[in-house]
Amino acid sequence: GDHLYARDDHVQEYMGIREQPRVPLRPPHRPLIWGDLNIIHTTDTHGWLLGHQKLSWAEPYYSGDLGDFSSFVTHMKRIAIEKDVDLLLIDSGDLHDGTGLSDGYHGGVDAHESNKFVGRLPYDLMTIGNHELYVYADTYDMYTNFIPHLGGRYLTSNVNITIFDSDGKSESVPVGNRYAKFTTRKGRRITSLGVIFNFTGNVANTTVQTVHDMVNEQWFVEAIAEEPDAFVLIGHMPVSYDSWPTVFNAVRAVHPLTPILIFGGHTHIRDCQQYDGRSMGIESGRYMETIGWMSADLDAAKGKHDNITFTRRYLDQNRVTYEYHTHTSKYAFDTINGRSITYGLQELAARYDLSYLYGTAPQDYTLSQNPYPSNGSLLSLFIDHAVPYALAINNTRDSIPNIIIINSWALRSDLFKGSFTRNDQLTVMQYKDTFLYIANVASGIASQILPALNNPPAMKQKRDETEDELSRKTRDGAWLEEIDDRPGVDRREATSDKWTFGYVTKDSCPNAGHADDTLHTALPYYPAPYYIGSNPPNVTADTPVDVVFLNYLGEEIIPILNRLQKNKKYTMDDVSLYSPMLTSDVLGLYAQAKWN
Ligand SMILES: Nc1ccn([C@@H]2O[C@H](COP(=O)(O)O)[C@@H](O)[C@H]2O)c(=O)n1
């Protein structure tokens, strides 16, 4: 029902259509290679449905929006029909926690409204992410309002929700479907699963089964018993250094030659793994920056033992990319459904008052393009300036010296020079976490907590993180440093061609370094510690101070405090609310006071 239409300039002006992109962008450097089974993949979109609207590089390369993406998918489906091949659309979870569109609601449920727009895309398969599992109301909303529209193709092979009937009787049921078997337009029989990594931070009344236990379930054994033409396995699980081999090996043990295509997520990176010559797994970045592409020549490999020819590509999410690959002009690109999604999202942004201005940021503050600590570091701005300012407001404990500790991953995206709006506040820090404290800790002990938290053996005790996730945190830094093969210092200043900045990916599949669709110069990258803290107060070692920390860190602080001193056995009873302020409010308060 999605009709294409051409526009002329007059119509464009009349309809108030925005001119996108607002700055010239490099186009892709070569056409996509199609196979007989092709997949467009999104993951970890985190509510970035209006795309990236800032002009600091490399943001314009991600300036497409969900409406543009919808138009792209419609054109690609048409091209697939013309080529007489299959094209599937897949998402690997984490739809929200990331922008005002998904998290700027007034008293509603996170992502309830934004997901209605996602639901207008013709997804063939979707799965659940950890962000759909932090708050029961969010999971329940997915279960009741979103998943039913997917017609059995929203897969949660190892995730259950507990639901209650009107008598309060409870039942634990899969959030979506455990698996799906379907036939493509070209008659290919597909078996699919939807798997999340061994996540342990899920809210009460949801359960995540370990991947190892899942593959030993009777339903799993039965689901994979019959041989399809291909297994299309999706999951909110990284394709490297995680549990995909557990699933892969379980399938391979039964079907030594059946093609296996894997679509992962969670680590926010562009990545690829081949588990053997007849399989490939990709991960397609984050925040509507990257659209993943995989193609496979299945017919040529049918009934043979040869390796399958796969291709993969990481597309920058913008209209230049979309028009290039669909051979359309900016006048013929938009579809009615695409335009209507864009307008609907803009209307939602207006309804949520997302352009409400807190102040004007004097410069860019980045998470990893500047070292921490430094003047350009968002982590420094937040922990050294914004949090101490915001926590001091109307706080009776303000006169007592304190040490504030947060997890740096609570900050989610860079803060750019110029207007700092309600939407910017929520893109940088959308979690509604609270600040807790433990009183009367000797300063000499309190100042040892942060180094102890950042020390790897202590990190292993983290309550709701698996070893897998911990190792990825360390690895992510190493991985990004590895791809960042140019000298880090002042790279942004050193080149006048800032418009070339963007992702430079070296993944682990054949022709590593050739999977980015648009050629870029890598952005500078500096790793930061997982935990960061405010500057310790200038007091003697025995001065009592408040240890202030995010509720997300919860019980992690207690065992460390008990290891560092033996005078008192701390428990959660020693923890109190430090301020009614939420983390998502900090930067707005700071900007209002300092950037006007
Ligand atoms: N209430 C919360 C929830 C999560 N976090 C942080 O986010 C990280 C998970 O995000 P991914 O996109 O990597 O899935 C988690 O490790 C926490 O650092 C938080 O701060 N508050």
Condensed summary:
The chain has 596 residues and is an alpha/beta fold. The protein is built from 19 helices and 24 strands. 47% of the residues are buried.
Task: Describe the protein.
The chain has 596 residues and is an alpha/beta fold. The protein folds into two domains: 9-351, Purple Acid Phosphatase, chain A, domain 2 (4-Layer Sandwich); 357-462 and 525-594, 5'-nucleotidase,  domain 2 (Alpha-Beta Complex), CATH 3.90.780. It is built from 19 helices and 24 strands. Strands 4-3-2-1-14-15 form a six-stranded mixed β-sheet, with helices on one face. α12 packs across α19 (586-594) and α14 crosses α18 (557-564). The longest helix has 18 residues, at 66-83. The radius of gyration is 24 Å and the shape is globular. Residues 1-17, 460-468, 470-480 and 482-494 have low confidence and may be disordered. The site of the ligand Nc1ccn([C@@H]2O[C@H](COP(=O)(O)O)[C@@H](O)[C@H]2O)c(=O)n1 has 11 residues, from loops.
Strands, count: 24
Strand content: 15-25%
CATH topology of the largest domain: Purple Acid Phosphatase, chain A, domain 2
Please report the number of helical segments.
19
Gross CATH architecture of the largest domain: 4-Layer Sandwich
Described by its quaternary structure, the protein is single chain
Strand order of the largest sheet: 4-3-2-1-14-15
| The first-level CATH class name of the largest domain | Alpha Beta
Keywords: Signal
Pfam family, one: NadN_nucleosid_C
Domain Putative 5'-nucleotidase C-terminal: 364-557
GO molecular function, one term: hydrolase activity, acting on ester bonds
